[in-house]
Amino acid sequence: MRLEQRLCAVCGVSNRGQKIGRVDVSEPASISTGIAARYATAVFELAKESDNLADLEGDIAALEDALAKSADFNSLISSPLHSRDVQARAMSAIADKMGLSQTMASTLALMAAKRRLFVLPQLVRALRAAIAKDKGEVTADVVSAKPLTKTQESKLAKSLKSSFGKDAIINSTVDESLIGGLVVKVGSKMIDTSIRSRLNSLQNAMKEVG
Predict the structure, then answer these.
(1) Which residue among 114, 120, 147, 208 is least packed, with the fewest CB closer than 10 Å?
(2) Which helix (H) or strand (E) holds 3?
């Protein structure tokens, strides 16, 4: 079975009789997460079957870097102003430049054809979590007011390992509105030590007193 056919089969999509136009990229987060999960399952299974998980990890790192640093890349995958053809050509060129694996390049091409590139951030997170689970690790999504230093990441990873009994992979992002502190999510568990959260709690407490 061709790679694209396998992806379509696992993701539950088909090219037959499909009309592809512009898509509302503001779909509910639960829908986007569900779409990303189906693609992630297909990509992970294909990479594992072909013993290419190391290549997949390289793909994920490259895409995470682009998502974190390139406004143009984020616009390309999320803006409804870009046509399907523009997205497909651009993603093909980007995949070549990044040196992405054939599995990931084909997945991005399919997502462009289906107008599903807007779920790429969720796809990357889902793949990172799948690989961590396969290795017996946990993935921690960490949001901080400023970029974490290597020392801070190392200390946080040790703390999480002590709590969960598994090596932790830190997936960090920055949200300046937090002011300070961290928001750490591991699976369904979340720890919010941000100043914004404390201020909100204090504000709610004051409303109750009033």
Answers:
(1) 208
(2) helix 3-11
Beta carbons within 10 angstroms of residue 19's beta carbon? 4
- Chain centroid offset of residue 99 CA: 19
Domain regions of the chain by residue span: 3-14+23-131, 137-209
Q: Render pLDDT for 141-194 as a digit per residue (tens, 0 to 9).
A: 899 988 888 899 999 999 988 888 888 888 888 888 888 888 998 877 888 888
DSSP category for residue 51: T
**Beta pairing class for 138-144 and 168-174:** parallel
Token output for 149: 């230093």
In the CATH hierarchy, which fold is given to the domain comprising 3-14+23-131?
Answer: Peroxidase; domain 1 (1.10.520)
User: Considering the entire predicted model, what is its pTM?
Assistant: 0.68
